[in-house]
Specification:
The protein contains twelve helices and five strands. The chain has a single domain, classed as SGNH hydrolase (Rossmann fold). The chain is an alpha/beta fold.
Length: 254
């Protein structure tokens, strides 16, 4: 499917419902545009989306990617991501392949990236990274080196990659700061975008939004999974299939 066809299909939906363009992230998942921005490039993924009718995403990560905290597989953020992206990318068959292993750190994920990419043959890899490195107190310099090596592995396979940073856990905010900082530094140095789950969830929490963490005070609950799936879909949509400038301006809130 051409990008023109995708844009026209989205335009029809937008004209039918202007609010969907102006405010795609609704309560309790509403976040600022700044939290939805993804600096960097996903040029190969965008080209694939322009040229094909199907689009496959491989998500590699730990327990949240495995769906821990969701009451059913259909409520995991990866399932919500697939549904939400298909709604945004009219006419595109989106497949999300979730490969999460509970408790895994970056070094474990990096070791299996090539195998997972070979099996899934994705158009885009999302690497959900950092949560367990924080709790296992992995040396920050070692964490950076592993993350950089993993990104190089994915790039060498000819696939674009975006990072998904850790969830926001209020009581452990200070622990996450250096690891979040490293991911931002890597993004700035390599051009690999980050989907800023941490900032988005923090924004929702600070604004008095719905609770997104389960009773174990770590894993996302159904609401957290739903919000993150919707957030990630909207961020990716803006990155790889943005609306034409004229349409954005026409539906900009006044």
């Amino acid at each position: 499917m051409s990008l023109f066809r995708v844009s026209v299909a989205v335009a029809v939906v937008a004209l039918a419902s202007p609010a969907a363009v102006a405010d795609p992230m609704f309560a309790p998942c509403k976040v600022a545009d700044a939290d939805l921005s993804m600096a960097g490039k996903l040029d190969r993924a965008a080209k694939r989306l322009k040229d094909a009718d199907d689009f496959r995403i491989l998500v590699v990560g730990s327990s949240s990617t495995a769906g821990v905290g969701a009451t059913s597989p259909s409520k995991a953020y990866t399932a919500r991501l697939e549904t939400e992206l298909e709604q945004r990318l009219a006419g595109v068959d989106v497949s999300v392949v979730a490969r999460g292993i509970g408790g895994e750190t970056a070094v474990g994920a990096e070791a299996r990236l090539k195998t997972e990419i070979g099996a899934a043959k994705p158009d885009l890899v999302i690497w959900q990274i950092g949560t367990n490195d924080v709790y296992r107190k992995i040396d920050v310099a070692a964490f950076r080196s592993i993350a950089e090596r993993g990104i190089a592995d994915i790039t060498a396979a000819g696939v674009d990659v975006a990072l998904l940073d850790p969830q926001y856990v209020p009581q452990d905010e200070a622990l996450y700061t250096p690891y979040i900082g490293v991911l931002k530094q890597i993004s700035a140095a390599t051009g690999v975008p980050i989907a800023r789950r941490y900032d988005a969830m923090k924004s929702i929490a600070k604004s008095g939004g719905a609770a997104m963490i389960s009773g174990d005070r770590l894993h996302m609950n159904d609401t957290g999974h739903a919000c993150v799936g919707a957030f990630l879909a909207e961020a990716l949509d803006r990155k790889i299939a943005p609306l034409p400038p004229a349409m954005v301006e026409a539906h900009r809130p006044t």
